Amino acid sequence: MKVMKFGGTSVGTPQRMKEVAKLITSDPGEKIVVLSALSGTTNTLLEISNLLANNDREGAGQKIAGMEKYYRAFVQELLTNETIIDKANKVLAEHFEFLTIILKISFSEALLKDILAQGELLSTKIFSLYLEEQNVDYVLLPALDFMTLDNQDEPQVGTIKVKLVQLLQHYKDNKIFITQGYITRNAKGEVDNLKRGGSDYSASLIAAAINASACEIWTDIDGMHNNDPRVVKTTMPIKQLSFDEAAELAYFGAKILHPASIWPAQFFNVPVRLLNTMQAEAAGTLITETAGSTGVKAVAAKDGITAIKIKSSRMLLAYGFLRKVFEVFEKYRTAIDMITTSEVAVSVTIDSDTYLDEIKKELEALGSVEVDTNQTIVSIVGNEITETKEVMKKLFDSLSAIPIRMVSYGGSRHNISVLIPKNYKEQTLQLLNKGLFGLE
Ligand code: ADP
Ligand code: ASP
Ligand code: MG
């Protein structure tokens, strides 16, 4: 059995949804199909939630009405059979009634999660009705019946496996299973999610749970490219990546994969394929244990980084000092991405400002603290690159005009990272495209 995940743009129009149906029925194997919400829907649901949080019920109501109109037109265009259209309209009535009710109740974090879940619930139900119309045999497996988080909000692969295997046992003769990406239950049993872009993570967790033969991530581009195609004009797809390389790229900003989506596949050794729904015959990117080749494969950039420097000439080299620094971040459950040290100071970066004030206050007990917000980590990723000749030279030659704030080298053999102010990101990615890949 394999997993096929289709992202927002892949199901974003009635035509695309029909193509997805063709893709999943054209090969005879067993599969679990993981769907995202239609493109734009999760953003709209977030906007509705923000309006509600700010008590703008009228604004939220208008957005909900606009969304309902869009979905009504969508099913009209997708479906032809009157009975199935009736069913689809009932599905829409049910979900938009829920969204109308929320206008009357007070806003909370738990309600926000319920609102955000509507996108995937709608897309899977609409897609299922299209399959029904096409006389395709399928089973809709509700993700909320098997996806779970523990009390640290980490997915519970063991529990997911047990629940999913149990569910699948009821359907021994079926071959096509549809489920929602992104949504899950948390430790309290409430509806929750795997954060933005989380359907990739769902797919990988499901692939790990069923020991799938492959985890296919179908999207709007022909695989992982050597640079960010949203920023740089000329980029090219990469044929093969190791799990380690792909994990670094995902974590350091390659939006094509959710930051945490590689570890489940890697842990259970399920090959991941990145494929293009609009160009199904393209080779895409294969991600397995082996890297294929050595050398630089790609660069990626992660925005929203804060750099914190702690200066303490008296204490830095005393043992135990770094532990005290790290304990502050641990206390506030804030992950550190980069770290550099000198005789008198240590600099770290974090990607979440939620507890910045508290962290800063506690670090001030250890030394003087400087904070720079709005930074970007640019990562150069490849197999054994730290042992590949000339990479550092090319890197620094290319970036001679960029004010580099930190450098991380040697932490892993697959990654060299530099920290720059965000307003230099575009220039940096372009310079690296030329200096490392010879692309203009
Ligand atoms: P989906 O809706 O299918 O999950 P996403 O928008 O989340 O799709 O991810 C695909 C997008 O990721 C591409 O359209 C591309 O703009 C962006 N992207 C960023 N970096 C890369 C990269 N290195 N290679 C490929 N795509 C990338
Ligand atoms: N619909 C969710 C989002 O937009 C999850 C996903 O698309 O992967 O973030
Ligand atoms: Mg995505």
Tell me the series of helices and strands, N- to C-terminal.
Answer: EHEHHHHEHEEEHEEHHEEEHEEHEHEEH
Strand order of the largest sheet: 3-4-2-1-7-9-10-8
pLDDT averaged over residues: 95
Helix residue percentage = 25-40%
The gross shape turns out to be: globular
Note the total helix count. Answer: 13
Rg from C-alpha positions?
23 Å
Q: Write out the distinct hetero groups bound to the structure.
A: adenosine-5'-diphosphate, aspartic acid, magnesium ion
Could you walk me through the main structural features you see in this protein, from its secondary elements to its overall organization?
The protein has 440 residues and is of the alpha/beta class. The chain is 39% helix and 22% strand. The chain has 13 helices and 16 strands. It has helices spanning 14-26, 41-53, 57-78, 82-101, 109-133, 157-169, 199-209, 243-251, 262-267, 321-331, 356-363, 391-398, 425-437, and strands spanning 2-6, 31-35, 139-140, 176-180, 183-185, 191-193, 215-219, 240-242, 272-276, 285-288, 295-311, 336-341, 345-350, 368-383, 406-412, 415-421. Strands 3-4-2-1-7-9-10-8 form an eight-stranded mixed β-sheet, sandwiched between helices. A hairpin with a 3-residue loop joins β12 (336-341) and β13 (345-350). α4 (82-101) runs antiparallel to α5 (109-133). The longest helix is centred in the N-terminal third of the chain and has 25 residues, at 109-133. The two termini are 42 Å apart. The structure holds adenosine-5'-diphosphate, aspartic acid and magnesium ion.
